[in-house]
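Sharing in case it's useful to others searching the archive later.

Someone asked me privately for the predicted structure of Branched-chain amino acid ABC transporter substrate-binding protein, so I'm posting the question and my answer publicly. Question first, with the sequence:
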Amino acid sequence: MGKLLAVLTAATVAAGVCANAQAQQKLVVAGYGGSFEDIMRKDIFPPFAKQHGVELDYVAGNSTNTVARLQAQKSNQQIDVAIIDDGPMYQAIALGFCAPIQGLPANDLYGTARYKDDKAVAIGIVATGIMYNKKVFEERKWAPPTSWKDLKDPKYKKQLVVPPLNNTYGLHALVEYAREGGGGEKNIDPGFKTFKDEIGPNVLVYEPSPGKMTELFSSGQAAIAVWGSGRVKAFADTGFPVGFVYPREGAYALLSSVCPVAKANANPLAQAFVNYLVSPPVQEKLASAYGYGPVNKLAKVADDPRVPLPIGKRADALIVIDWDTVNQNREDWNKRWTREIER
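And my answer, the predicted C-alpha coordinates:
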Protein backbone atom coordinates (compact mmCIF):
# COMPACT_ATOMS: atom_id res chain seq x y z
CA MET A 1 0.00 0.00 0.00
CA GLY A 2 2.85 2.35 1.01
CA LYS A 3 4.68 1.56 -2.26
CA LEU A 4 1.49 2.16 -4.31
CA LEU A 5 0.93 5.48 -2.52
CA ALA A 6 4.53 6.50 -3.23
CA VAL A 7 4.11 5.64 -6.92
CA LEU A 8 0.82 7.56 -7.10
CA THR A 9 2.38 10.54 -5.30
CA ALA A 10 5.36 10.50 -7.69
CA ALA A 11 2.98 10.31 -10.66
CA THR A 12 0.92 13.21 -9.29
CA VAL A 13 4.05 15.33 -8.74
CA ALA A 14 5.30 14.48 -12.25
CA ALA A 15 1.90 15.38 -13.71
CA GLY A 16 1.98 18.63 -11.73
CA VAL A 17 5.46 19.50 -13.00
CA CYS A 18 4.43 18.63 -16.54
CA ALA A 19 1.24 20.70 -16.28
CA ASN A 20 3.25 23.55 -14.79
CA ALA A 21 5.76 23.38 -17.65
CA GLN A 22 2.89 23.49 -20.13
CA ALA A 23 1.22 26.36 -18.28
CA GLN A 24 4.47 28.32 -18.44
CA GLN A 25 4.49 28.09 -22.20
CA LYS A 26 1.69 30.66 -22.38
CA LEU A 27 2.10 34.37 -21.63
CA VAL A 28 -0.95 36.61 -21.32
CA VAL A 29 -0.33 40.22 -22.34
CA ALA A 30 -2.99 42.89 -21.79
CA GLY A 31 -2.76 46.10 -23.81
CA TYR A 32 -4.49 48.57 -26.10
CA GLY A 33 -6.77 47.53 -28.95
CA GLY A 34 -6.94 48.87 -32.50
CA SER A 35 -3.78 49.43 -34.52
CA PHE A 36 -1.57 48.83 -31.46
CA GLU A 37 -2.96 45.30 -31.11
CA ASP A 38 -2.33 44.69 -34.83
CA ILE A 39 1.34 45.73 -34.48
CA MET A 40 1.82 43.57 -31.38
CA ARG A 41 0.34 40.49 -33.02
CA LYS A 42 2.03 40.99 -36.40
CA ASP A 43 5.47 42.43 -35.59
CA ILE A 44 6.27 42.23 -31.87
CA PHE A 45 4.96 38.84 -30.71
CA PRO A 46 6.33 36.45 -33.39
CA PRO A 47 10.12 36.93 -32.79
CA PHE A 48 9.70 36.61 -29.01
CA ALA A 49 7.38 33.59 -29.33
CA LYS A 50 9.86 31.87 -31.63
CA GLN A 51 12.90 32.63 -29.46
CA HIS A 52 11.29 31.43 -26.22
CA GLY A 53 8.93 28.76 -27.53
CA VAL A 54 6.00 30.49 -25.88
CA GLU A 55 2.42 31.15 -26.94
CA LEU A 56 1.37 34.77 -26.46
CA ASP A 57 -2.26 35.59 -25.73
CA TYR A 58 -3.42 39.19 -26.14
CA VAL A 59 -6.23 40.77 -24.10
CA ALA A 60 -7.26 44.06 -25.71
CA GLY A 61 -8.74 46.98 -23.80
CA ASN A 62 -7.99 50.55 -22.81
CA SER A 63 -5.91 51.25 -19.71
CA THR A 64 -8.92 51.65 -17.42
CA ASN A 65 -10.28 48.28 -18.59
CA THR A 66 -6.92 46.60 -17.93
CA VAL A 67 -6.65 47.99 -14.38
CA ALA A 68 -10.26 46.88 -13.76
CA ARG A 69 -9.33 43.37 -14.99
CA LEU A 70 -6.33 43.29 -12.62
CA GLN A 71 -8.64 44.25 -9.75
CA ALA A 72 -11.27 41.68 -10.71
CA GLN A 73 -8.61 38.92 -10.90
CA LYS A 74 -6.83 40.01 -7.71
CA SER A 75 -6.94 36.58 -6.07
CA ASN A 76 -6.06 34.73 -9.29
CA GLN A 77 -4.22 36.93 -11.80
CA GLN A 78 -4.57 35.69 -15.38
CA ILE A 79 -2.53 38.53 -16.92
CA ASP A 80 1.28 38.22 -16.95
CA VAL A 81 2.23 41.56 -18.51
CA ALA A 82 0.15 44.76 -18.49
CA ILE A 83 0.60 47.62 -20.98
CA ILE A 84 -1.09 50.71 -19.54
CA ASP A 85 -0.93 54.51 -19.87
CA ASP A 86 1.09 56.33 -17.21
CA GLY A 87 -1.85 57.60 -15.10
CA PRO A 88 -3.56 54.23 -14.61
CA MET A 89 -0.07 52.66 -14.24
CA TYR A 90 0.53 54.79 -11.13
CA GLN A 91 -2.75 53.36 -9.80
CA ALA A 92 -1.78 49.78 -10.69
CA ILE A 93 1.53 50.21 -8.84
CA ALA A 94 -0.20 51.74 -5.78
CA LEU A 95 -2.62 48.79 -5.72
CA GLY A 96 0.31 46.34 -5.69
CA PHE A 97 -0.31 44.83 -9.14
CA CYS A 98 3.22 45.42 -10.50
CA ALA A 99 6.39 43.49 -9.67
CA PRO A 100 9.82 45.19 -9.85
CA ILE A 101 11.45 44.72 -13.26
CA GLN A 102 14.70 42.78 -13.21
CA GLY A 103 17.59 43.43 -15.58
CA LEU A 104 16.49 46.75 -17.08
CA PRO A 105 19.24 48.32 -19.23
CA ALA A 106 19.10 51.46 -17.04
CA ASN A 107 21.98 53.30 -18.75
CA ASP A 108 20.33 52.93 -22.17
CA LEU A 109 16.98 54.36 -21.07
CA TYR A 110 15.90 58.01 -20.83
CA GLY A 111 15.18 59.08 -17.25
CA THR A 112 11.58 59.93 -18.20
CA ALA A 113 10.96 56.25 -18.96
CA ARG A 114 11.77 55.04 -15.44
CA TYR A 115 9.29 54.53 -12.60
CA LYS A 116 10.07 54.45 -8.87
CA ASP A 117 11.60 51.11 -7.81
CA ASP A 118 11.41 50.00 -11.49
CA LYS A 119 7.87 48.71 -10.91
CA ALA A 120 7.07 49.79 -14.48
CA VAL A 121 8.89 51.25 -17.47
CA ALA A 122 7.72 53.35 -20.40
CA ILE A 123 7.80 51.65 -23.80
CA GLY A 124 6.98 54.75 -25.80
CA ILE A 125 6.39 58.48 -25.61
CA VAL A 126 3.17 59.81 -27.10
CA ALA A 127 2.19 63.46 -27.54
CA THR A 128 -1.43 64.48 -26.98
CA GLY A 129 -2.27 67.19 -29.47
CA ILE A 130 -4.71 68.03 -32.26
CA MET A 131 -5.56 65.82 -35.23
CA TYR A 132 -7.35 67.26 -38.27
CA ASN A 133 -8.50 66.18 -41.73
CA LYS A 134 -6.14 67.97 -44.16
CA LYS A 135 -8.44 67.43 -47.15
CA VAL A 136 -11.48 68.98 -45.42
CA PHE A 137 -9.40 71.92 -44.17
CA GLU A 138 -8.01 72.58 -47.67
CA GLU A 139 -11.46 72.32 -49.29
CA ARG A 140 -12.95 74.76 -46.78
CA LYS A 141 -9.86 77.00 -46.89
CA TRP A 142 -9.38 76.66 -43.14
CA ALA A 143 -5.91 77.27 -41.71
CA PRO A 144 -4.52 74.28 -39.78
CA PRO A 145 -5.07 74.58 -36.01
CA THR A 146 -2.13 75.95 -33.99
CA SER A 147 -3.57 76.32 -30.48
CA TRP A 148 -5.78 74.56 -27.94
CA LYS A 149 -7.95 77.70 -28.14
CA ASP A 150 -8.79 76.85 -31.77
CA LEU A 151 -11.06 74.01 -30.63
CA LYS A 152 -13.50 76.66 -29.36
CA ASP A 153 -14.03 78.07 -32.88
CA PRO A 154 -17.77 77.84 -33.75
CA LYS A 155 -16.92 76.73 -37.30
CA TYR A 156 -16.13 73.29 -35.82
CA LYS A 157 -19.68 72.90 -34.44
CA LYS A 158 -20.48 69.17 -34.18
CA GLN A 159 -17.24 68.25 -36.02
CA LEU A 160 -14.91 67.95 -33.01
CA VAL A 161 -14.24 64.62 -31.29
CA VAL A 162 -12.73 64.45 -27.79
CA PRO A 163 -12.14 61.19 -25.91
CA PRO A 164 -14.00 61.11 -22.55
CA LEU A 165 -12.37 61.88 -19.22
CA ASN A 166 -11.60 58.25 -18.35
CA ASN A 167 -9.23 58.33 -21.34
CA THR A 168 -5.83 60.05 -20.98
CA TYR A 169 -6.33 62.22 -24.09
CA GLY A 170 -9.58 63.62 -22.67
CA LEU A 171 -7.96 64.16 -19.29
CA HIS A 172 -5.08 66.09 -20.87
CA ALA A 173 -7.59 68.37 -22.61
CA LEU A 174 -9.43 69.06 -19.35
CA VAL A 175 -6.17 69.90 -17.54
CA GLU A 176 -5.09 72.18 -20.41
CA TYR A 177 -8.33 74.20 -20.26
CA ALA A 178 -8.12 74.34 -16.45
CA ARG A 179 -4.58 75.79 -16.77
CA GLU A 180 -5.69 78.23 -19.44
CA GLY A 181 -8.42 79.46 -17.07
CA GLY A 182 -5.94 80.05 -14.24
CA GLY A 183 -6.38 76.68 -12.55
CA GLY A 184 -4.75 73.31 -13.14
CA GLU A 185 -4.67 69.85 -11.58
CA LYS A 186 -5.28 71.33 -8.12
CA ASN A 187 -8.15 73.55 -9.35
CA ILE A 188 -9.98 71.81 -12.18
CA ASP A 189 -13.12 74.03 -12.15
CA PRO A 190 -12.01 76.35 -15.02
CA GLY A 191 -11.51 73.27 -17.22
CA PHE A 192 -15.06 72.05 -16.62
CA LYS A 193 -16.40 75.55 -17.29
CA THR A 194 -14.56 75.80 -20.63
CA PHE A 195 -15.78 72.36 -21.71
CA LYS A 196 -19.35 73.18 -20.75
CA ASP A 197 -19.49 76.65 -22.34
CA GLU A 198 -17.01 76.66 -25.23
CA ILE A 199 -15.79 73.18 -26.24
CA GLY A 200 -18.99 71.17 -25.66
CA PRO A 201 -21.07 72.92 -28.37
CA ASN A 202 -18.48 71.85 -30.99
CA VAL A 203 -18.28 68.23 -29.85
CA LEU A 204 -19.90 65.64 -32.11
CA VAL A 205 -19.22 62.83 -29.63
CA TYR A 206 -16.94 62.01 -26.67
CA GLU A 207 -15.45 58.88 -28.21
CA PRO A 208 -13.03 56.49 -26.43
CA SER A 209 -12.72 53.82 -29.17
CA PRO A 210 -9.80 54.17 -31.63
CA GLY A 211 -11.75 52.24 -34.28
CA LYS A 212 -14.77 54.51 -33.92
CA MET A 213 -12.57 57.63 -33.99
CA THR A 214 -11.06 56.71 -37.37
CA GLU A 215 -14.54 55.73 -38.62
CA LEU A 216 -15.92 59.20 -37.73
CA PHE A 217 -13.11 60.81 -39.74
CA SER A 218 -13.37 58.36 -42.65
CA SER A 219 -17.13 58.95 -42.96
CA GLY A 220 -16.61 62.73 -42.97
CA GLN A 221 -18.61 63.31 -39.77
CA ALA A 222 -15.58 64.59 -37.85
CA ALA A 223 -12.90 67.02 -39.05
CA ILE A 224 -10.86 67.72 -35.90
CA ALA A 225 -10.05 65.87 -32.67
CA VAL A 226 -7.90 65.64 -29.56
CA TRP A 227 -5.76 62.51 -30.00
CA GLY A 228 -2.32 61.00 -29.55
CA SER A 229 0.58 61.14 -32.02
CA GLY A 230 0.87 57.34 -32.13
CA ARG A 231 -2.77 56.81 -33.03
CA VAL A 232 -2.61 59.60 -35.65
CA LYS A 233 0.49 58.08 -37.26
CA ALA A 234 -1.19 54.68 -37.51
CA PHE A 235 -4.21 56.39 -39.11
CA ALA A 236 -1.95 58.31 -41.56
CA ASP A 237 -0.29 54.98 -42.48
CA THR A 238 -3.63 53.78 -43.85
CA GLY A 239 -3.40 56.60 -46.43
CA PHE A 240 -5.92 58.90 -44.77
CA PRO A 241 -5.05 62.64 -45.22
CA VAL A 242 -4.64 63.40 -41.55
CA GLY A 243 -2.43 66.00 -39.89
CA PHE A 244 -1.17 66.35 -36.32
CA VAL A 245 -0.36 69.57 -34.45
CA TYR A 246 1.69 70.22 -31.31
CA PRO A 247 -0.30 73.23 -29.98
CA ARG A 248 1.75 76.35 -29.26
CA GLU A 249 0.83 76.22 -25.53
CA GLY A 250 2.37 72.74 -25.46
CA ALA A 251 1.38 69.16 -26.23
CA TYR A 252 1.02 66.74 -23.33
CA ALA A 253 3.18 63.69 -22.60
CA LEU A 254 1.57 60.30 -22.40
CA LEU A 255 3.90 57.46 -21.47
CA SER A 256 2.75 54.11 -22.75
CA SER A 257 4.11 51.85 -20.01
CA VAL A 258 4.46 48.21 -19.09
CA CYS A 259 4.84 46.14 -15.94
CA PRO A 260 5.21 42.45 -15.09
CA VAL A 261 2.14 41.54 -13.02
CA ALA A 262 2.94 40.63 -9.40
CA LYS A 263 1.66 37.14 -8.70
CA ALA A 264 2.63 33.87 -7.08
CA ASN A 265 4.59 31.57 -9.43
CA ALA A 266 5.05 34.38 -11.95
CA ASN A 267 6.30 33.22 -15.32
CA PRO A 268 9.93 34.41 -15.69
CA LEU A 269 9.18 35.10 -19.35
CA ALA A 270 7.07 38.08 -18.19
CA GLN A 271 10.32 39.79 -17.10
CA ALA A 272 11.99 38.80 -20.37
CA PHE A 273 9.08 40.20 -22.40
CA VAL A 274 9.19 43.55 -20.57
CA ASN A 275 12.92 43.86 -21.28
CA TYR A 276 12.30 42.83 -24.90
CA LEU A 277 9.82 45.73 -25.30
CA VAL A 278 12.48 48.34 -24.40
CA SER A 279 15.18 46.78 -26.62
CA PRO A 280 16.36 48.93 -29.60
CA PRO A 281 14.82 46.71 -32.37
CA VAL A 282 11.36 46.75 -30.72
CA GLN A 283 11.67 50.47 -29.92
CA GLU A 284 12.50 51.15 -33.57
CA LYS A 285 9.54 49.06 -34.70
CA LEU A 286 7.13 50.84 -32.31
CA ALA A 287 8.42 54.19 -33.57
CA SER A 288 8.09 53.39 -37.27
CA ALA A 289 4.83 51.43 -37.03
CA TYR A 290 3.08 53.29 -34.22
CA GLY A 291 4.73 56.69 -33.94
CA TYR A 292 6.10 56.28 -30.41
CA GLY A 293 9.02 58.43 -29.33
CA PRO A 294 11.61 55.82 -28.25
CA VAL A 295 12.65 55.39 -24.60
CA ASN A 296 15.91 53.61 -25.48
CA LYS A 297 18.78 55.97 -26.43
CA LEU A 298 20.24 53.33 -28.76
CA ALA A 299 17.12 53.14 -30.96
CA LYS A 300 17.63 54.80 -34.34
CA VAL A 301 14.47 56.57 -35.41
CA ALA A 302 13.67 58.81 -38.38
CA ASP A 303 10.98 61.48 -38.07
CA ASP A 304 7.72 61.19 -40.00
CA PRO A 305 7.00 64.15 -42.32
CA ARG A 306 3.20 63.63 -42.04
CA VAL A 307 2.94 63.18 -38.28
CA PRO A 308 5.90 64.73 -36.41
CA LEU A 309 7.08 62.23 -33.80
CA PRO A 310 7.73 63.11 -30.14
CA ILE A 311 11.53 62.94 -30.43
CA GLY A 312 14.35 65.36 -29.63
CA LYS A 313 13.22 68.89 -28.70
CA ARG A 314 9.55 68.05 -29.21
CA ALA A 315 9.79 65.26 -26.62
CA ASP A 316 11.68 67.55 -24.21
CA ALA A 317 8.98 70.23 -24.48
CA LEU A 318 6.04 67.94 -23.66
CA ILE A 319 3.99 68.85 -20.57
CA VAL A 320 3.87 66.18 -17.85
CA ILE A 321 0.85 66.38 -15.58
CA ASP A 322 0.76 65.88 -11.81
CA TRP A 323 -0.52 62.30 -11.69
CA ASP A 324 -0.56 62.10 -7.88
CA THR A 325 -3.10 64.95 -7.70
CA VAL A 326 -5.06 63.64 -10.69
CA ASN A 327 -5.38 60.09 -9.34
CA GLN A 328 -6.61 61.36 -5.96
CA ASN A 329 -9.43 63.26 -7.69
CA ARG A 330 -10.11 61.34 -10.85
CA GLU A 331 -13.08 59.32 -9.61
CA ASP A 332 -14.87 62.50 -8.51
CA TRP A 333 -13.97 64.22 -11.78
CA ASN A 334 -15.31 61.26 -13.78
CA LYS A 335 -18.65 61.46 -11.94
CA ARG A 336 -18.78 65.21 -12.45
CA TRP A 337 -17.90 64.78 -16.15
CA THR A 338 -20.78 62.33 -16.64
CA ARG A 339 -23.13 64.68 -14.76
CA GLU A 340 -22.10 68.00 -16.35
CA ILE A 341 -20.42 67.32 -19.71
CA GLU A 342 -21.65 64.03 -21.19
CA ARG A 343 -25.24 64.39 -20.08
